[in-house]
Write a structure and sequence with these properties.
With about 325 residues, the chain is α+β, with helices and mostly antiparallel strands. Among the domains are: about 80 residues, Rossmann fold (3-Layer(aba) Sandwich); about 60 residues, ATP-grasp fold, A domain (Dna Ligase, domain 1), CATH 3.30.1490. Helix content is about 40%, strand content about 25%. The chain is built from eleven helices and 13 strands. The strands form three sheets. Strands 8, 9, 10, 11, 12 and 13 form a six-stranded antiparallel β-sheet that branches. A four-stranded antiparallel β-sheet has the order 4-7-5-6, covered by helices on one side. A hairpin with a 2-residue loop joins strand 8 and strand 9. The longest helix has 26 residues. It is globular, with a radius of gyration of 19 Å. It starts with a strand and ends with a helix. The C terminus is likely disordered.
């Protein structure tokens, strides 16, 4: 089976994507797969590079990778790919839309404002929301362009930074929620062990805490039964409501015994420091086996979609 590991892309998360791709290649079973690295930094390059693949293993993050764009291109070409489909990828990449859906489904998520241009800038609205706030790109990832703002003095510069980092020129101003940060990885509809996150030197789980060695302590946590059930219910509601499939990671803050969902990642990081492989390992699933299951489940999803399409015609 020819497995193309698609990495690179055009987003600010280019380097993270390369690290994910390299780690995937290191753990793919060469007895099962012919592994083909597919690195690109211009969308036009990709069409030729993916020809002949049996499956595209997506190691992409950010715009043109995690937002449904490449998923749609691969579907047009008839090439199976790993992870969620076009709709889920697009919805989860847009934090504002995904939070609106979660609110509708009764899932807790911090209050927020969404600004689509500097014309929307309103210190008064942020004052009503309540400081401190997290200013972040609406469609970004890896905490790039994200900043904690404690008062109006730092608001404007943080907003400019977030706008610069967002490919869609849209940002969130989200009420800061103090509490324990956890993450729930989901594989083929099953919630893996919950990981608790404590940043070593940062106030919150920023880029350095995520990717620098020793930047954060990430360990399996055993929550009280009722809280554990609430967390699992919130994570699965997100997964289903946003039409995710195969695998995803739901990032949550626990505050006063209540889970607040921050975001859903349809292509979570897969570097050696990443949370999904750690959660899988805690469930007794090796990195190699994790990739096997992602590929197998994705191919099953692809066949089912083809079957539905043929039946509909």
């Amino acid at each position: 089976m020819k497995v193309g590991v698609i990495m690179g892309g055009i987003s600010s998360e280019f380097e993270v994507s390369l690290n994910t791709g390299k780690e995937m290649m290191n753990h793919l079973d060469r007895n099962k797969y012919e592994v083909i690295p597919v690195v690109f930094n211009k969308p036009a390059e990709l069409v030729e590079k993916v020809k002949g693949l049996d499956v595209a293993l997506l190691a992409l993050h950010g715009a043109y990778g995690e937002d449904g764009t490449i998923q749609g291109m691969l579907e047009t070409l008839g090439i199976p790919y790993t992870g969620s489909g076009v709709l889920a990828s697009s919805l989860c990449m847009n934090k504002d839309l995904s939070k609106k859906i979660l609110r509708y489904e009764g899932v807790g998520t911090p209050d927020w404002l969404c600004w689509n241009s500097l014309d929307d800038y309103s210190p008064e609205a942020v004052e009503r929301l309540g400081y401190p706030v997290m200013v972040k790109p609406n469609s970004g990832g890896s905490s790039i362009g994200m900043e904690k703002v404690k008062d109006e003095k730092g608001l404007h510069s943080a907003v400019l930074k977030a706008f610069t980092s967002d490919p869609e020129q849209s940002i969130l101003v989200e009420r800061y929620t103090a509490g324990q940060e956890i993450t729930c990885s989901i594989l083929d509809g099953e919630i893996l062990p919950v990981i608790g996150i404590t940043s070593a030197s940062s106030e919150w789980f920023d880029y350095h805490a995520k990717y620098e060695e020793g930047g954060a302590e990430e360990v399996v946590v055993n929550l009280p039964y009722e809280l554990d059930q609430s967390v699992r219910k919130a994570a699965m509601t997100c997964y289903k409501a946003l039409k995710c499939s195969v695998y995803a990671r739901v990032d949550i803050l626990l505050s006063d015994g209540v889970p607040y969902v921050l975001e859903i990642n349809t292509l979570p990081g897969m570097t050696k420091a990443s949370l999904l492989p750690k959660s899988a390992a805690a469930a007794g699933i090796s990195f190699s086996s994790l990739l096997d299951r992602i590929i197998s489940c994705s191919l099953t999803e692809h066949k089912q979609k083809k079957g539905v399409t043929v039946h509909a015609e």
